[in-house]
Amino acid sequence: MGCGAFRSSKTHPAPSLSVVPDSPGKEVPWKDGKTQQSDCTSASTASDLDLVDSQAQQAQQEEEEDVDTDGEDSPEESDDSMPGEPMEAKWARAANKKRRLARQRIRAAKRAKKYGATVSPRTACDDRFSGIRRPRANPEKEGCFDRQCFLASSCAAVDEIYDLSINLGKGTFGTVERCTHRKTKTLFAMKTIAKKKVYNPARLAQEVEIMRVLEHPNIVKLHETFEDDKYIYIVMELCTGGELLDRLLSLGKGGFSERAVARIMRQVVGAVYYMHQQQICHRDLKPENFLLVTDVADVADAHVKVIDFGFSTRFEPGVRMATRAITRDYVAPEILDGSYTEACDIWSLGVIVYVLLSGNKPFYGASDAEVFAKVKSAAYDFEDASWAGTSEDAKDLIRRTLALDATQRLTADQVLHHRWIAEMAPDASAAPVVPEVFWRLQSFNALGKFKRAAMTAVAQQLQEDAIQQLREIFQALDSNDDGCLSVEDVEQGLRQAGVEVSNELQRVFQLVDSDGSGLVEYTEFLAATIDEKRHLGEAACWAAFRVFDMDGDSKITKDEMAVMLSCGHAKSLAESLGADRADIEQVIAEADLDGDEQLDFKEFHAMLLSCCSRKPAPSLPLAINS
Prior knowledge:
Blueprint: H1 33-42, H2 46-49, H3 54-63, H4 87-115, H5 121-124, E1 152-153, H6 158-161, E2 162-170, E3 174-181, E4 187-194, H7 201-213, E5 222-227, E6 231-237, E7 242-243, H8 244-251, H9 258-277, E8 280-281, E9 290-292, E10 304-306, E11 313-314, H10 333-336, H11 344-358, H12 368-377, H13 392-401, H14 412-416, H15 419-424, H16 435-443, H17 449-459, H18 468-477, E12 484-485, H19 487-496, H20 505-512, E13 520-521, H21 522-529, H22 532-535, H23 538-548, H24 558-565, H25 578-591, H26 601-612
Parallel strand pairs: 1-5
Antiparallel strand pairs: 2-3, 3-4, 4-6, 5-6, 7-9, 8-11, 9-10, 12-13
C-alpha cells in the first residue's frame, strides 16, 4: 500500500462502518449525500457547530466564494505523493488539505443550520454493534461480554482525532499513511479507502469485521474505524520495520538464511493456523503482506505481523469457495478452477518459503497465461544454484505444501509442526515466567464485569513495545500454537513453573474467558495480566475511555455503561439485567469521587489503577522457577 488520500472529512455519521452487514451475505449500499448530511449533524450539537477550529475560521472567507467540492479533487489538491517529491511539497499539500477540510466542516455546519437537523449524538452511535458476531462468542452467558464492542469508534470527524504525516503506501482501493493521535501523540497507521473505488461494499465491510475479530500476536491490530460520505478510515497499529519483501529485495539473490525463514514462517503459519481455526481464509498471503513490527539488524529476530484482509473471507468446513481471488505468483491452482477450500492458503505458504529461501519465484513466465499454466501443473524445480546449500527438510516442506491435490497438502497445523520449522525455529517455551502473571490471572475474578470490560478495552489499545513480555509468556503457554489458551494449557504452565494448581482454576479460567468461548484468547490474557507500571499509560487509558464515552462529552454515564456491557441490547441502565445494574451501581459508588453519578477521565484512570494494584494470592509461592 502507498499513501496520500486523506480527503473529505466533512461528516462522521456513525462510530462504526455503516457498510458492515448484519449477516455475511447481506449487501448494504452506500448512504446517499442527503442522508449523510443529516447524519453529520447528528454527531454535533448546536454549540459544537460554533466551536470550529482556528483553521476553519481562517478559511471562512474563502468559503463565501467556494463551491461544493464533494466531487473529485482537482489535480493541484491531490493528496497523492510523487516519486522523489521534496518534503516542502508534502508540507504544502498537508496545509492545503487542512484548509480544505476546514472549508468542508464550515459547509456541513451551514447545511445543518439551514435544514435544522438536530439528531442527538447517541442516536448516531446506535449502529456500532451491528455486524457479524464472533463465531464462538457467548455474550449472553452471565458475566460475559463481546470484545468487538470495545474497539474505539468516534462520532467526530477523523481529522479532529488524528493528524496525518507520512505516506506509507498506495494500493488499488486506497492509501496508507502514518497518523498521530492529537491528544496522546501515539503513532498509528491509517488506511483510507475511497468508496467510489469499492465495487462490492459488503466485501469491504467483511474486511473490517474480520480485522475486528482476529486477536493474535502475529496479526495486525485494528484500533478504530471512521466513515464519512466519501471514504472509509481504518486505524491500525503502526509497524515501523517495513515490508518483509523490501527486506528480501535488499539482500539480492539467494534470499534469507534457513534459520531466518523458519523463524519468520513459524510466526506466519501460526497466524494462519489461528485464522483457519476461526474459519477465516486469508486468500492473499504473500511477502508484501508481512510487516516487521520494528527494524532489526537480523530478520531472524523480527516480530512479524500479517496484514491486508481485503480478500479474506469466512468459510464453512467442507463447503467449497468459488470467488477468483488472485495474486498471480501466489495463487493456488484450484482457485484458477473456481472451486477451492482454505487449503489455498497452504499453497501460498509454500510459494512464500520458496521465494524467501531462493530469492526467486517458483512459477515464472512472460505472461499471466504462462505463469498460470505452470501453476496448474506445479512446474517448479530446485535446480538454481541458490538451492545448493538448502536442507532436504526445507525442500520437503515446499513439496508437501505445493501439492496439486489440495487434499494431500499439509494443514496449517502440520506445517507448523513440520520437522524443518521445529528444528530451525524451536518453540520459545523457555520464555521466563513472571510470578505476577499467575496471581493476576487468579485475582482477576475479584473484579466486577465493568472493571474487567474496562481492562479489556485498555488491552486492545496497548502498543507492541509495552506487551512484549506478556506476548512471550502467552506464546509459551500456548502449547499447540493455536493462538488461544485452554484450561489445560494454563494448568500445564502453572505446573511447569512450580505453582500448585488450585481447585479454583476452572472457575478462574471461566472469568478470564470474557466472551464465554471456552478458551482464553490473546486480548483476554492481556486484560487479566496488565501491570499498572508498564501498561497503564495515558494513551491506552484515554483510548479505552473514549470507547465507553459514547457521546463524546468526556463523561461515562450509567446508561453508557449499560449499553457497552450488553453490547447494545440494553439502551439504558433501566433496561440492563439485574447483575449488570448492580455492578454499574457498585462501580459508580467506588469510583465516582465528585458525586455526579458518572465517571470523568481522572476517575476512570484511578479505577484502572486500582484494578491493576491487586495483591498476590497467598496460596501462590513468592518465587517461581522459570
